[in-house]
Amino acid sequence: MSGEKTISRWLPAWRGALAALPIFAGAAIAQVPALVAYEIDGDEIRAPFAAAGDAGRGRAIVLSRESGNCYLCHAVPDAGAVPVGNIGPSLAGVGARASAAQLRLRVVDSSRINARSVMPAYYRVEGLRQVAAVYRDKPLLTAQQVEDVVAYLSQLRN
Amino acid sequence: MSGYRLPLILIAGWLAAAPGVSVAQTAVRPQPLKSGIEFTGPEVRALQEDEFANPAMLWITRGAALWQQPVGPAQQSCASCHGDVATMKGVATHYPQIDKGSARLINLEGRIQQCREVRQQTAPLRYESEDLLALTALVRMQSRGMPLAIEIDPQNRRHFERGRELYYRRVGQMNLSCANCHQDNWGKRLGPETISQGQGNPYPIYRLEWQTMGSLHRRLRACLSGVRAEMLPYGAPEYLDLELYLAWRSGDLPIETPGVRR
What we know:
The structure holds two protein chains of two kinds.
Chain A: H1 2-31, H2 55-62, H3 94-97, H4 100-109, H5 143-155
Helix pairs in contact in A: 2-5, 4-5
Chain B: H1 2-17, H2 42-49, H3 57-68, H4 78-82, E1 97-98, E2 105-106, H5 108-119, H6 130-141, H7 157-168, H8 178-182, E3 189-190, E4 193-194, E5 205-207, E6 212-214, H9 216-226, H10 237-249, E7 259-261
Parallel strand pairs in B: 5-7
Antiparallel strand pairs in B: 1-2, 3-4, 5-6
């Protein structure tokens, strides 16, 4: 009797954690690749995350409703018929205003530049709350996609 | 005097820079208050304002039939107690409110569900069912043109504070709060849309994107889904708290039910 009572006292507190362990461990190993570690120097991330970025792929990400969604907030100089937003600054000339290393940090985690920025961090998974299960522990962009976007933005010099 | 100035500036600067410190302490209404209908464009406005074209009127018709329909062991309809639905004028302006019996915060949908269960002694209507949307829209339409009459008092203050906290809480993979868009950036363009103030005055609404009627809680869930955050069940206490905050925040905006939105 007393043994049962002891067990039922600690079970409710630990049941959730015990049940969650294999799932989290499995997700961390099998589904979610670890994020590339990076170092911030001032307002820059100097080392690229992946193979050289492809500006064409970057443009597609910036104008994509499914991945980057950048156009929702930023004017994009060659957006064509895509209706662009005006919440953030225009991306026209952003490649002349900022280096690739500076652009990389702004894409990865703009809160490092301005804590009150409403721009999502595109390569950060910690410090977020109530993330929907399918997106948990996943960054908005992959390391390669970050490089592609940086390559595209670097080209926007006018 | 001047000796104090520098530390004060430093403290002010720190408050402004620290995420989630300064803004969440204050409850503010957008100035000037604007109904979402001012951001929808002329076609949607015309659809809402013409009762023969407004698709939400189908639910009003359905609600009017339900109002008269006897249900439960005593074969009581809404009309058996309340009479003509026109007697409900002004009622919706007091929701959400603290339910005296349970001391819980309850919205208009919850009150209708409670009436069904306790007074009519029949099965409660499922949240977001066609019937509950129809009755909610019908009752709320009786207060069309009236602003909400929400007072924050010792009974509901805890809910109001929690609603306000939720309003300013950044959530989801996109890490956005309600306030990030609807308080700080309303009137700006988010892709093809102009961001509204996120006012609840037209609900339940017919939303063209949904091709059907939906409640305020459905809209809250849609926003949460957009920022890739966890969604809660319809009628969740957190959504009720948020609804109370939104009700206070809508100030003297008149009820527009049944509204139409994109």
